[in-house]
Amino acid sequence: MEVMKTLDSNAWEWLVEKPPTQWSKSHFKTHIKCDILQNNLCESFNNIIKTARNMPIFTMLEMIRCVFMRRIQWRRDKMSSWPHQICKNIFDHVQQKKLEACNCTVQWSGGPKYQLDAGRGNQYVVDLDNHTCSCRKWDLSGIPCAHGIIAIHYKGGKAVEDYVHSYYSKDSYMALYNNLIMPINGSHDEAKVAARVRRKLAYARTKAAAAAKKAALNASQPNAAEIA
Ligand SMILES: [Zn+2]
């Protein structure tokens, strides 16, 4: 922050008013298992619906419904043929971290904690029981960092994928996409229903008018007692 203050005092003043939990990973909570700082998720959603956003409201909603109806089934099909226990992007990420882990050395204290030396004076503590590392990358993301991967290999017995948080498992993914959006009938049925409603309303109005006319006629005619 002090460096930023010297570089741009306006940026520093703007940022210092914001709670650090909104922009600094060092203050992010770890139970969420998400280290994303940007709002790219919203932008991806907006990109999908940008064509529909220019449409009238019912057309827009119908287009979005159809997009997600197809998308959910497409994702379910794709994931059902995936052979690993964690999702593809996370699997690829772990493979990359395994390569980075080659530069670390490990020392074991005898308990669940390991001391990792990443070179250049960078030293971290990995706790395999709690799935944490003092670099905080594992804590924030739920995915073992390079230091954690070295400790996992050193301990042996379980695969790195076994230490990835269950949020990223294939089972969780399939459970998430288990709620299907069902097909619905088109507007031609709506037109039939509307016509049926109009006919019933017209019949009710005619019947009410006839009843009112009859009542008025009866009221205008003198009864037998008045005639006598
Ligand atoms: Zn780490």
Automatic annotation (TrEMBL):
Keyword annotations of the record: Metal-binding, Zinc, Zinc-finger
SMART domains listed in its UniProt record: ZnF_PMZ (SM00575)
InterPro entries: Znf_PMZ, Znf_SWIM
UniProt superkingdom: Eukaryota
GO molecular function (one): zinc ion binding
Keyword Zinc-finger: yes
Residues of the SWIM-type domain: 124-156
Entry protein name: SWIM-type domain-containing protein
Organism of derivation: Prunus dulcis (Almond)
